[in-house]
Predict the 3D structure of the following.
Amino acid sequence: MRARMIELSWSGLRVSAIAVELGCSQKTARCWLHRFNGAGLQGLEDLCGQGRKRRITEQERSRIISLVKTVPPGRLRWEPVGELWAFDESGPAEWTLDSLAAAAQVEGIEVGRSQVRRILLAEGVRWRRTRSWMRSKDPDFVPKGQGSSASTPSRPTT
């Protein structure tokens, strides 16, 4: 498209006509014509190094994504004898953006909560806030639908 702009310019077309012909803005056509006039054919090449450089490597991104798939160190598990235990009782029981960022920082990856969120969104991971009301530390807690029939009101029969 850039070379075509130069060709149309040499044919005598004005910038407005070139823009209409190629379906771009006049500003774009004018920019490339000026770059060609200043630097020749090399002026039509893409400039390298545009934009902000990534703060973490692709390998570090992969480590963060794989961290999400691991079991959090504080999550309780059932032992074969029927007791609950956790690898690290002081660790998070569920992954949150904050706990993932902290775990990544322990592994030497300098990353913040918002960057972890962006990485997960870019990978298509749907992230939801933990609903603490769904779990209870009370040993007698029974979630809805799993309780005894005595705890649910009976329906009148007709």
